[in-house]
Amino acid sequence: MLPALAAAQPVPDRPRLPGIGAADPRRPVDLDQPPWRGFGRVQQELGKRCSGALVGPRLVLTAAHCLVAPRSGRLVQPETLHFLLGYDRGRFAGHGRAVSYRVAPGYRPDGQGPREADWALLTLDAALGTPDRVMPLLEAPPPPRTALMLGGYQRDRPEVLQADTGCRAIGTAQGGSLLLHDCAGTHGASGAPVLAQAPDGRWAVAGVTSGGMANVAMGVAVAAQGFAAALR
Prior knowledge:
Elements: E1 9-10, E2 23-24, E3 27-28, E4 39-44, E5 49-54, E6 59-62, E7 81-85, E8 94-103, E9 120-124, E10 147-154, E11 157-173, E12 178-181, E13 193-197, E14 203-212, E15 219-223, H1 225-228
């Protein structure tokens, strides 16, 4: 059984959003406070939008499927990708355009997997990642029932960062390469980091959001160990 969400509220009478479930615990967060200071919106010039976060002075972590063109089904050119740091209703703390990106070896933009390859690192033309904005990575997936948080720019409210701050890890799959969790998040949260507390107490990236289940608050993230080597 999934843990209860004390702050959950019933979803209004409308079609249920994938990844949310019968109650919606997501709330807007303060972008001036950690750990949200490194979050931003990733968007294509073709209109597709996702979430991402700074993991280096010029590096943004997101999902590889966020780089796929909606019509052609192919990876877009780097210069058509933008990162809007701290985006909030048309305003943002910084802007960077991708000059290159790296996707996981074996990633297929046709949607045929593998799921554990659904990560990407964008290199920006501007250094936006000050020390208080860059997110550290966890070296191993958190154990079941570890407290997590997930925030992103989601389809129902794409102009603000909404977060589920009371969710937990469920376990892992694919030999530990995937992190399963009960965080609420729908379309647009793809690419957002799933956060867990590091031993020093800071919130760190436990994984990058790849997808969610249809009618429950449950999702899948690529565990941070799968892309940590790319940052070294």
